[in-house]
Prior knowledge:
The chain is mostly helical and about 130 residues long. It contains two helices and two strands; from the N terminus they run αβαβ. The radius of gyration is 43 Å and the shape is rod-shaped. Mean pLDDT is about 75; it is low at about 120-125.
Amino acid sequence: xxxxxxxxxxxxxxxxxxSLTKQVAELTTLVETLTQTIQSLxxxxxxxxxxxxxxxxxxxxxxxxxxxxxxxxxxxxxxQLGHEGHRLTITGESDxxxxxxxxxxxxxxxxxxxxGKACVSEKTIQSxxxx
Length: 131
């Protein structure tokens, strides 16, 4: 099939060529930017949390494991000032009370304070309760 080469046909081909050249240039720049993005992502250090590597391959550079959703406050840990504590209370009477008087030879730290009486530092109460 012979094609007639007219001036209109040549103009249409030139327009088509110009638009395709622009499209190739745009796609080339897009490929270049995507290639740079891929290279920067490949350079990112991999560890056991962002890849399939085992934790033993992390070495001494351990990733930060602080994943708490709580906001940091200026309060100290534990019970705050003014908090009324809850303690176990002894209910009932004890079955037996033993008072131990230490010998002077035992070098009791409270001997001068006690002077042979029931020693404050060594007094014990043994209790037995029925539940």
